[in-house]
Protein backbone atom coordinates (compact mmCIF):
# COMPACT_ATOMS: atom_id res chain seq x y z
CA UNK A 1 0.00 0.00 0.00
CA UNK A 2 2.77 2.46 0.93
CA UNK A 3 4.66 1.53 -2.25
CA UNK A 4 1.59 2.20 -4.36
CA UNK A 5 0.91 5.54 -2.63
CA UNK A 6 4.53 6.53 -3.24
CA UNK A 7 4.16 5.48 -6.89
CA UNK A 8 1.02 7.61 -7.24
CA UNK A 9 2.81 10.69 -5.96
CA UNK A 10 5.86 10.08 -8.16
CA UNK A 11 3.85 9.34 -11.32
CA UNK A 12 1.35 12.16 -10.79
CA UNK A 13 4.20 14.63 -10.38
CA UNK A 14 5.98 13.30 -13.46
CA UNK A 15 3.10 13.13 -15.97
CA UNK A 16 0.61 15.69 -14.67
CA UNK A 17 0.92 17.46 -18.04
CA UNK A 18 -1.09 14.57 -19.54
CA UNK A 19 -4.31 16.06 -18.18
CA UNK A 20 -3.85 19.19 -20.29
CA UNK A 21 -3.05 17.13 -23.39
CA UNK A 22 -6.13 14.95 -23.04
CA UNK A 23 -8.54 17.72 -22.05
CA UNK A 24 -7.22 20.35 -24.46
CA UNK A 25 -6.38 18.30 -27.56
CA UNK A 26 -8.05 14.95 -26.93
CA UNK A 27 -11.51 16.48 -26.65
CA UNK A 28 -12.16 14.83 -23.28
CA UNK A 29 -12.72 17.92 -21.16
CA UNK A 30 -11.29 18.50 -17.71
CA UNK A 31 -13.00 15.48 -16.14
CA UNK A 32 -11.94 13.14 -18.94
CA UNK A 33 -8.38 14.45 -18.87
CA UNK A 34 -8.20 13.91 -15.10
CA UNK A 35 -9.62 10.39 -15.50
CA UNK A 36 -6.94 9.45 -18.06
CA UNK A 37 -4.22 10.91 -15.83
CA UNK A 38 -5.44 8.96 -12.80
CA UNK A 39 -5.66 5.71 -14.75
CA UNK A 40 -2.11 6.06 -16.06
CA UNK A 41 -0.66 7.02 -12.68
CA UNK A 42 -2.49 4.14 -11.00
CA UNK A 43 -0.87 1.76 -13.52
CA UNK A 44 2.62 3.26 -13.18
CA UNK A 45 2.30 3.15 -9.37
CA UNK A 46 1.97 -0.63 -9.54
CA UNK A 47 5.71 -0.99 -10.20
CA UNK A 48 6.93 0.55 -6.91
CA UNK A 49 4.04 -1.24 -5.18
CA UNK A 50 5.33 -4.59 -6.45
CA UNK A 51 8.86 -3.61 -5.41
CA UNK A 52 7.72 -2.75 -1.89
CA UNK A 53 5.67 -5.94 -1.57
CA UNK A 54 8.50 -8.23 -2.68
CA UNK A 55 11.20 -6.40 -0.74
CA UNK A 56 9.18 -6.17 2.49
CA UNK A 57 10.44 -9.58 3.77
CA UNK A 58 14.02 -8.32 3.33
CA UNK A 59 13.45 -5.60 5.93
CA UNK A 60 11.84 -7.73 8.63
CA UNK A 61 15.08 -8.19 10.50
CA UNK A 62 18.35 -6.31 10.61
CA UNK A 63 21.18 -8.50 9.24
CA UNK A 64 24.56 -8.31 10.91
CA UNK A 65 26.72 -10.77 8.95
CA UNK A 66 28.75 -9.17 6.15
CA UNK A 67 27.22 -11.25 3.35
CA UNK A 68 23.71 -10.71 4.66
CA UNK A 69 24.26 -6.97 4.73
CA UNK A 70 24.95 -6.79 1.00
CA UNK A 71 22.74 -9.50 -0.46
CA UNK A 72 19.31 -8.07 0.53
CA UNK A 73 20.30 -4.61 -0.71
CA UNK A 74 21.55 -6.08 -3.99
CA UNK A 75 18.34 -8.06 -4.43
CA UNK A 76 16.27 -4.92 -3.87
CA UNK A 77 18.40 -2.96 -6.37
CA UNK A 78 18.02 -5.73 -8.97
CA UNK A 79 14.26 -5.62 -8.39
CA UNK A 80 14.08 -1.87 -9.03
CA UNK A 81 16.24 -2.19 -12.15
CA UNK A 82 14.13 -5.05 -13.48
CA UNK A 83 10.87 -3.21 -12.86
CA UNK A 84 12.26 -0.12 -14.63
CA UNK A 85 13.04 -2.39 -17.58
CA UNK A 86 9.57 -3.96 -17.63
CA UNK A 87 7.93 -0.54 -17.39
CA UNK A 88 9.74 0.41 -20.58
CA UNK A 89 8.52 -2.76 -22.32
CA UNK A 90 5.00 -3.66 -21.19
CA UNK A 91 2.01 -2.22 -23.08
CA UNK A 92 4.41 -0.78 -25.73
CA UNK A 93 6.40 0.87 -22.93
CA UNK A 94 6.07 4.18 -21.12
CA UNK A 95 8.89 4.78 -18.64
CA UNK A 96 8.82 8.55 -18.90
CA UNK A 97 11.05 9.13 -15.88
CA UNK A 98 13.44 6.20 -15.28
CA UNK A 99 15.41 6.35 -12.05
CA UNK A 100 18.81 6.93 -13.67
CA UNK A 101 17.23 9.46 -16.05
CA UNK A 102 17.11 11.91 -13.17
CA UNK A 103 20.87 12.36 -13.62
CA UNK A 104 20.68 13.03 -17.37
CA UNK A 105 21.69 16.68 -17.11
CA UNK A 106 24.78 15.81 -15.03
CA UNK A 107 27.10 14.17 -17.61
CA UNK A 108 29.65 13.14 -14.98
CA UNK A 109 27.07 10.88 -13.33
CA UNK A 110 25.65 9.13 -16.41
CA UNK A 111 28.94 8.21 -18.07
CA UNK A 112 28.53 4.46 -17.41
CA UNK A 113 25.40 4.48 -19.60
CA UNK A 114 27.70 3.76 -22.56
CA UNK A 115 28.62 0.49 -20.82
CA UNK A 116 25.31 -0.78 -19.46
CA UNK A 117 22.65 1.65 -20.70
CA UNK A 118 20.37 3.88 -18.69
CA UNK A 119 18.44 0.94 -17.22
CA UNK A 120 21.62 -0.88 -16.32
CA UNK A 121 22.80 2.31 -14.60
CA UNK A 122 19.71 2.09 -12.42
CA UNK A 123 21.35 -0.86 -10.63
CA UNK A 124 24.28 0.96 -8.95
CA UNK A 125 22.15 4.06 -8.30
CA UNK A 126 19.47 1.99 -6.58
CA UNK A 127 22.07 -0.01 -4.65
CA UNK A 128 23.78 3.15 -3.37
CA UNK A 129 20.44 4.61 -2.31
CA UNK A 130 19.29 1.41 -0.60
CA UNK A 131 22.57 1.00 1.29
CA UNK A 132 22.42 4.57 2.59
CA UNK A 133 18.72 4.31 3.46
CA UNK A 134 19.23 1.03 5.32
CA UNK A 135 21.80 2.67 7.58
CA UNK A 136 19.03 4.84 9.01
CA UNK A 137 16.35 2.13 8.81
CA UNK A 138 18.19 -0.52 10.80
CA UNK A 139 19.81 0.10 14.18
CA UNK A 140 22.84 -2.03 13.43
CA UNK A 141 26.26 -2.35 14.99
CA UNK A 142 28.97 0.11 13.86
CA UNK A 143 30.71 -2.55 11.76
CA UNK A 144 27.64 -3.17 9.61
CA UNK A 145 27.11 0.57 9.15
CA UNK A 146 30.75 1.05 8.14
CA UNK A 147 30.56 -1.73 5.56
CA UNK A 148 27.43 -0.27 3.96
CA UNK A 149 28.79 3.27 3.93
CA UNK A 150 32.13 2.16 2.46
CA UNK A 151 30.47 0.17 -0.32
CA UNK A 152 28.16 3.06 -1.18
CA UNK A 153 31.10 5.48 -1.38
CA UNK A 154 33.15 3.07 -3.53
CA UNK A 155 30.23 2.59 -5.97
CA UNK A 156 29.65 6.32 -6.23
CA UNK A 157 33.38 6.97 -6.68
CA UNK A 158 33.54 4.40 -9.49
CA UNK A 159 30.50 5.96 -11.18
CA UNK A 160 31.85 9.50 -10.95
CA UNK A 161 35.38 8.41 -11.83
CA UNK A 162 34.29 6.73 -15.05
CA UNK A 163 32.00 9.68 -15.76
CA UNK A 164 34.91 12.14 -15.51
CA UNK A 165 37.14 9.93 -17.66
CA UNK A 166 34.56 9.44 -20.42
CA UNK A 167 33.44 13.09 -20.37
CA UNK A 168 37.00 14.36 -20.86
CA UNK A 169 37.69 11.71 -23.50
CA UNK A 170 34.75 12.61 -25.72
CA UNK A 171 35.01 16.35 -25.16
CA UNK A 172 38.63 16.22 -26.36
CA UNK A 173 37.52 14.27 -29.45
CA UNK A 174 34.77 16.81 -30.15
CA UNK A 175 37.30 19.66 -29.96
CA UNK A 176 39.31 18.23 -32.86
CA UNK A 177 36.36 16.84 -34.85
CA UNK A 178 35.26 18.30 -38.15
CA UNK A 179 32.05 20.31 -37.78
CA UNK A 180 29.15 20.69 -40.18
CA UNK A 181 26.63 23.52 -40.11
CA UNK A 182 23.14 22.19 -39.43
CA UNK A 183 20.22 24.60 -39.36
CA UNK A 184 17.13 23.60 -37.40
CA UNK A 185 13.70 25.09 -38.03
CA UNK A 186 11.63 25.92 -34.95
CA UNK A 187 8.28 27.27 -36.25
CA UNK A 188 6.49 27.10 -32.85
CA UNK A 189 3.08 26.36 -34.36
CA UNK A 190 0.43 25.94 -31.62
CA UNK A 191 -1.11 22.48 -31.67
CA UNK A 192 -4.66 23.82 -31.80
CA UNK A 193 -3.79 25.72 -35.00
CA UNK A 194 -1.55 23.22 -36.76
CA UNK A 195 -4.25 21.18 -38.52
CA UNK A 196 -6.84 23.95 -38.79
CA UNK A 197 -7.19 25.03 -42.47
CA UNK A 198 -7.89 28.60 -41.33
CA UNK A 199 -4.30 28.99 -40.13
CA UNK A 200 -2.63 26.99 -42.89
CA UNK A 201 -1.65 29.94 -45.11
CA UNK A 202 -0.06 31.79 -42.18
CA UNK A 203 1.85 28.67 -41.16
CA UNK A 204 3.22 28.12 -44.67
CA UNK A 205 4.28 31.77 -44.81
CA UNK A 206 6.12 31.25 -41.53
CA UNK A 207 7.98 28.31 -43.05
CA UNK A 208 8.90 30.39 -46.11
CA UNK A 209 10.50 32.92 -43.77
CA UNK A 210 12.33 30.31 -41.69
CA UNK A 211 13.63 28.43 -44.73
CA UNK A 212 14.92 31.70 -46.16
CA UNK A 213 16.87 32.25 -42.95
CA UNK A 214 18.04 28.63 -42.91
CA UNK A 215 19.62 28.93 -46.36
CA UNK A 216 21.99 31.65 -45.18
CA UNK A 217 25.52 30.51 -44.51
CA UNK A 218 25.30 27.57 -46.91
CA UNK A 219 24.29 24.93 -44.30
CA UNK A 220 25.24 21.30 -44.76
CA UNK A 221 21.77 20.15 -43.66
CA UNK A 222 18.42 21.78 -42.85
CA UNK A 223 16.20 19.84 -40.43
CA UNK A 224 12.45 20.26 -40.03
CA UNK A 225 10.59 19.11 -36.88
CA UNK A 226 8.22 16.14 -36.74
CA UNK A 227 5.22 16.46 -39.15
CA UNK A 228 6.16 20.10 -39.59
CA UNK A 229 4.21 20.44 -42.84
CA UNK A 230 0.60 20.99 -41.60
CA UNK A 231 -1.06 18.82 -44.23
CA UNK A 232 -0.97 15.31 -45.65
CA UNK A 233 1.61 15.25 -48.40
CA UNK A 234 0.16 13.78 -51.59
CA UNK A 235 -3.48 14.29 -50.59
CA UNK A 236 -3.68 18.06 -50.11
CA UNK A 237 -2.71 19.05 -53.64
CA UNK A 238 -2.22 22.81 -53.22
CA UNK A 239 -0.02 22.42 -50.15
CA UNK A 240 1.83 19.49 -51.71
CA UNK A 241 2.69 21.69 -54.68
CA UNK A 242 3.94 24.37 -52.29
CA UNK A 243 6.25 21.90 -50.53
CA UNK A 244 7.55 20.52 -53.83
CA UNK A 245 8.41 24.07 -54.89
CA UNK A 246 10.18 24.79 -51.60
CA UNK A 247 12.20 21.59 -51.87
CA UNK A 248 13.07 22.18 -55.53
CA UNK A 249 14.24 25.73 -54.80
CA UNK A 250 16.40 24.58 -51.88
CA UNK A 251 17.84 21.68 -53.87
CA UNK A 252 18.67 23.88 -56.84
CA UNK A 253 20.72 26.05 -54.50
CA UNK A 254 22.61 22.96 -53.35
CA UNK A 255 20.85 22.52 -50.00
CA UNK A 256 19.77 19.22 -48.47
CA UNK A 257 16.78 19.05 -46.14
CA UNK A 258 15.38 16.47 -43.73
CA UNK A 259 11.65 17.20 -43.94
CA UNK A 260 9.13 16.03 -41.34
CA UNK A 261 5.67 15.44 -42.80
CA UNK A 262 2.56 13.29 -42.72
CA UNK A 263 2.11 11.24 -45.87
CA UNK A 264 0.58 7.96 -46.97
CA UNK A 265 0.96 4.79 -48.98
CA UNK A 266 -0.97 1.57 -49.57
CA UNK A 267 -0.16 -1.86 -48.19
CA UNK A 268 -0.05 -5.05 -50.24
CA UNK A 269 -3.82 -5.44 -49.87
CA UNK A 270 -4.53 -1.92 -51.06
CA UNK A 271 -5.35 -0.48 -47.64
CA UNK A 272 -4.61 3.19 -47.00
CA UNK A 273 -1.76 3.80 -44.52
CA UNK A 274 -1.02 7.16 -42.90
CA UNK A 275 2.69 7.58 -42.12
CA UNK A 276 4.80 9.88 -39.94
CA UNK A 277 7.86 10.43 -42.13
CA UNK A 278 11.27 12.07 -42.11
CA UNK A 279 12.34 12.49 -45.73
CA UNK A 280 15.91 13.32 -46.79
CA UNK A 281 15.88 15.38 -49.99
CA UNK A 282 18.93 16.77 -51.77
CA UNK A 283 20.01 18.19 -55.14
CA UNK A 284 19.93 14.67 -56.59
CA UNK A 285 16.40 14.03 -55.35
CA UNK A 286 15.33 11.66 -52.60
CA UNK A 287 18.26 10.36 -50.53
CA UNK A 288 16.16 8.14 -48.29
CA UNK A 289 13.29 8.26 -45.86
CA UNK A 290 12.32 6.93 -42.47
CA UNK A 291 8.75 6.22 -41.34
CA UNK A 292 8.14 6.19 -37.60
CA UNK A 293 7.97 2.62 -36.29
CA UNK A 294 7.21 2.98 -32.56
CA UNK A 295 3.93 4.86 -32.46
CA UNK A 296 2.27 6.51 -29.47
CA UNK A 297 -0.60 4.34 -28.21
CA UNK A 298 -3.87 6.28 -28.02
CA UNK A 299 -2.06 9.22 -29.62
CA UNK A 300 -1.14 7.95 -33.08
CA UNK A 301 -3.05 4.68 -33.10
CA UNK A 302 -5.52 2.70 -30.99
CA UNK A 303 -3.97 -0.59 -29.82
CA UNK A 304 -6.15 -3.70 -30.01
CA UNK A 305 -8.87 -1.77 -31.85
CA UNK A 306 -9.62 -4.77 -34.08
CA UNK A 307 -9.98 -7.06 -31.07
CA UNK A 308 -11.81 -4.67 -28.73
CA UNK A 309 -14.53 -2.83 -30.70
CA UNK A 310 -15.34 -0.40 -27.88
CA UNK A 311 -11.97 1.26 -28.52
CA UNK A 312 -13.48 2.63 -31.75
CA UNK A 313 -16.21 4.53 -29.90
CA UNK A 314 -16.17 8.32 -30.41
CA UNK A 315 -14.92 8.76 -26.83
CA UNK A 316 -11.73 6.88 -27.68
CA UNK A 317 -11.47 8.31 -31.18
CA UNK A 318 -11.21 11.76 -29.64
CA UNK A 319 -7.76 10.85 -28.39
CA UNK A 320 -6.43 10.72 -31.92
CA UNK A 321 -6.77 14.42 -32.63
CA UNK A 322 -7.34 15.83 -36.09
CA UNK A 323 -4.88 13.77 -38.12
CA UNK A 324 -6.15 10.24 -37.79
CA UNK A 325 -4.61 6.85 -37.17
CA UNK A 326 -1.01 6.29 -38.22
CA UNK A 327 0.52 3.03 -39.33
CA UNK A 328 4.04 1.94 -38.31
CA UNK A 329 6.81 2.07 -40.87
CA UNK A 330 9.55 -0.45 -41.48
CA UNK A 331 12.86 0.15 -39.81
CA UNK A 332 15.22 1.13 -38.51
CA UNK A 333 16.61 2.92 -41.55
CA UNK A 334 20.03 4.41 -42.17
CA UNK A 335 20.05 7.72 -44.06
CA UNK A 336 23.23 8.91 -45.79
CA UNK A 337 24.26 12.45 -46.66
CA UNK A 338 27.68 13.16 -48.23
CA UNK A 339 28.78 9.62 -47.36
CA UNK A 340 27.98 10.24 -43.68
CA UNK A 341 25.31 7.85 -42.34
CA UNK A 342 22.98 8.98 -39.59
CA UNK A 343 19.90 7.75 -37.78
CA UNK A 344 16.53 9.40 -37.20
CA UNK A 345 14.27 8.98 -34.19
CA UNK A 346 10.85 10.62 -34.22
CA UNK A 347 9.44 12.00 -30.94
CA UNK A 348 8.24 9.10 -28.72
CA UNK A 349 10.96 6.81 -30.11
CA UNK A 350 13.66 8.72 -28.23
CA UNK A 351 12.36 7.15 -24.97
CA UNK A 352 13.63 3.71 -25.92
CA UNK A 353 17.30 2.65 -25.70
CA UNK A 354 16.95 0.12 -28.52
CA UNK A 355 16.11 2.91 -30.97
CA UNK A 356 19.49 4.60 -30.59
CA UNK A 357 21.31 1.26 -30.41
CA UNK A 358 19.75 -0.03 -33.63
CA UNK A 359 20.85 3.07 -35.50
CA UNK A 360 24.37 2.86 -34.11
CA UNK A 361 24.57 -0.77 -35.28
CA UNK A 362 23.69 0.43 -38.80
CA UNK A 363 26.78 2.66 -38.74
CA UNK A 364 25.24 6.03 -37.84
CA UNK A 365 27.79 8.78 -37.21
CA UNK A 366 25.22 11.05 -35.57
CA UNK A 367 21.60 10.92 -34.45
CA UNK A 368 18.65 13.22 -34.96
CA UNK A 369 15.43 13.50 -32.96
CA UNK A 370 12.55 15.33 -34.63
CA UNK A 371 9.58 16.05 -32.42
CA UNK A 372 6.47 18.12 -31.86
CA UNK A 373 6.28 19.01 -28.18
CA UNK A 374 3.59 21.65 -28.67
CA UNK A 375 1.19 19.06 -27.21
CA UNK A 376 2.74 19.64 -23.79
CA UNK A 377 2.16 23.38 -23.53
CA UNK A 378 4.03 25.24 -20.80
CA UNK A 379 4.73 22.21 -18.62
CA UNK A 380 7.70 20.16 -17.44
CA UNK A 381 7.25 17.66 -20.28
CA UNK A 382 9.56 19.30 -22.90
CA UNK A 383 12.44 19.35 -20.41
CA UNK A 384 11.70 15.77 -19.38
CA UNK A 385 11.52 14.71 -23.03
CA UNK A 386 14.89 16.36 -23.73
CA UNK A 387 16.62 14.21 -21.10
CA UNK A 388 15.92 11.08 -23.15
CA UNK A 389 17.84 12.56 -26.09
CA UNK A 390 20.78 13.24 -23.78
CA UNK A 391 20.72 9.62 -22.64
CA UNK A 392 20.61 8.27 -26.22
CA UNK A 393 23.69 10.38 -27.06
CA UNK A 394 25.64 9.00 -24.09
CA UNK A 395 24.59 5.38 -24.64
CA UNK A 396 25.82 5.47 -28.25
CA UNK A 397 28.48 8.19 -27.84
CA UNK A 398 27.14 9.90 -30.93
CA UNK A 399 26.36 13.61 -31.33
CA UNK A 400 22.65 14.28 -31.48
CA UNK A 401 20.64 17.08 -33.08
CA UNK A 402 17.12 17.69 -31.77
CA UNK A 403 14.60 19.61 -33.88
CA UNK A 404 11.41 20.48 -31.98
CA UNK A 405 8.40 22.38 -33.31
CA UNK A 406 8.20 24.77 -30.35
CA UNK A 407 11.38 23.69 -28.57
CA UNK A 408 13.40 22.45 -26.98
CA UNK A 409 15.71 22.22 -30.00
CA UNK A 410 19.23 21.25 -29.03
CA UNK A 411 22.68 20.00 -29.95
CA UNK A 412 24.04 17.34 -27.60
CA UNK A 413 27.67 16.26 -27.46
CA UNK A 414 28.67 12.56 -27.25
CA UNK A 415 29.84 13.41 -23.72
CA UNK A 416 26.25 14.19 -22.72
CA UNK A 417 26.82 17.93 -22.57
CA UNK A 418 23.97 20.04 -23.96
CA UNK A 419 25.90 22.38 -26.26
CA UNK A 420 22.92 24.43 -27.45
CA UNK A 421 19.42 24.59 -25.99
CA UNK A 422 16.69 26.76 -27.48
CA UNK A 423 13.98 28.60 -25.55
CA UNK A 424 10.44 27.34 -25.98
CA UNK A 425 7.90 28.92 -28.30
CA UNK A 426 10.48 31.04 -30.09
CA UNK A 427 10.02 31.28 -33.88
CA UNK A 428 13.57 30.99 -35.16
CA UNK A 429 16.12 29.10 -37.21
CA UNK A 430 19.00 27.78 -35.11
CA UNK A 431 22.44 27.25 -36.61
CA UNK A 432 24.32 24.39 -34.94
CA UNK A 433 27.93 23.26 -35.41
CA UNK A 434 27.54 19.48 -35.54
CA UNK A 435 30.80 17.63 -34.72
CA UNK A 436 31.38 14.34 -36.54
CA UNK A 437 33.93 12.25 -34.68
CA UNK A 438 36.78 10.97 -36.85
CA UNK A 439 36.03 7.39 -35.87
CA UNK A 440 32.82 6.10 -34.35
CA UNK A 441 33.33 2.89 -32.39
CA UNK A 442 30.42 0.91 -31.04
CA UNK A 443 30.06 1.35 -27.29
CA UNK A 444 29.92 -1.62 -24.96
CA UNK A 445 26.22 -0.90 -24.45
CA UNK A 446 25.55 -1.12 -28.18
CA UNK A 447 27.61 -4.32 -28.53
CA UNK A 448 26.08 -6.21 -25.62
CA UNK A 449 25.88 -4.17 -22.43
CA UNK A 450 22.16 -3.69 -22.96
CA UNK A 451 21.66 -7.28 -21.78
CA UNK A 452 22.13 -6.25 -18.13
CA UNK A 453 18.66 -4.69 -17.85
CA UNK A 454 16.80 -7.71 -19.34
CA UNK A 455 18.78 -10.04 -17.05
CA UNK A 456 17.64 -7.93 -14.08
CA UNK A 457 14.10 -8.14 -15.49
CA UNK A 458 14.23 -11.94 -15.50
CA UNK A 459 15.81 -12.04 -12.03
CA UNK A 460 13.04 -9.73 -10.82
CA UNK A 461 10.39 -12.26 -11.78
CA UNK A 462 12.41 -15.07 -10.17
CA UNK A 463 12.96 -13.11 -6.95
CA UNK A 464 9.28 -12.20 -6.79
CA UNK A 465 8.23 -15.83 -7.14
CA UNK A 466 10.75 -17.01 -4.53
CA UNK A 467 9.88 -14.33 -1.97
CA UNK A 468 6.13 -14.78 -2.41
CA UNK A 469 6.52 -18.56 -2.12
CA UNK A 470 8.40 -18.07 1.16
CA UNK A 471 5.75 -15.64 2.34
CA UNK A 472 2.84 -17.99 1.64
CA UNK A 473 4.72 -20.96 3.14
CA UNK A 474 5.37 -19.03 6.34
CA UNK A 475 1.72 -17.99 6.47
CA UNK A 476 0.60 -21.60 6.14
CA UNK A 477 3.01 -22.73 8.85
CA UNK A 478 1.87 -19.96 11.17
CA UNK A 479 -1.78 -20.77 10.48
CA UNK A 480 -1.13 -24.43 11.29
CA UNK A 481 0.55 -23.46 14.57
CA UNK A 482 -2.39 -21.24 15.49
CA UNK A 483 -4.86 -24.07 14.81
CA UNK A 484 -2.77 -26.51 16.81
CA UNK A 485 -2.60 -24.03 19.66
CA UNK A 486 -6.37 -23.55 19.68
CA UNK A 487 -6.98 -27.31 19.63
CA UNK A 488 -4.53 -28.02 22.46
CA UNK A 489 -6.55 -28.89 25.63
CA UNK A 490 -6.08 -26.69 28.63
CA UNK A 491 -4.99 -28.15 31.95
CA UNK A 492 -7.82 -29.57 34.01
CA UNK A 493 -10.33 -29.46 31.18
CA UNK A 494 -11.23 -32.20 28.71
CA UNK A 495 -10.53 -31.69 25.02
CA UNK A 496 -13.89 -30.74 23.53
CA UNK A 497 -12.57 -30.27 20.03
Oligomerization status of the protein chains: single chain
Question: Which percent bin holds the helix content?
Answer: 40-55%
Q: Report Rg.
A: 27 Å
What is the overall shape? globular
- Provide a count of the helices: 15
Helix and strand pattern: HHHHHHHEHHEHEEEHEEHEHEEEEHH
Work out the number of β strands: 12
Unreliable parts: 62-66, 319-323
Q: What is the SS-derived class?
A: alpha/beta
Beta content: 15-25%
Biggest sheet features: 6 strands, mixed
> Termini separation (Å)?
38 Å
Order of strands across the main sheet: 5-4-3-2-1-12
Mean pLDDT: 86
In short:
With 497 residues, the chain is α/β, with parallel strands linked by helices. Helices cover 48% and strands 16% of the residues.
How is this structure best described in words?
With 497 residues, the protein is α/β, with parallel strands linked by helices. It is 48% helix and 16% strand. It contains 15 helices and twelve strands. Strand 6 (334-337) and strand 7 form a beta hairpin. Helix 6 (113-137) packs antiparallel against helix 7. It is globular.
Blueprint (SSEs and pairs):
Layout: H1 2-15, H2 17-24, H3 29-44, H4 46-55, H5 66-87, H6 113-137, H7 142-176, E1 178-186, H8 191-194, H9 197-214, E2 221-223, H10 237-252, E3 257-266, E4 272-282, E5 285-291, H11 314-317, E6 334-337, E7 340-346, H12 353-361, E8 366-371, H13 381-396, E9 400-404, E10 410-412, E11 418-421, E12 428-436, H14 444-447, H15 452-487
Helix pairs in contact: 1-3, 1-4, 2-3, 4-5, 5-6, 5-15, 6-7, 6-13, 12-13
Short key terms for the protein model shown above:
single chain; 497 residues; alpha/beta; 6-stranded mixed β-sheet
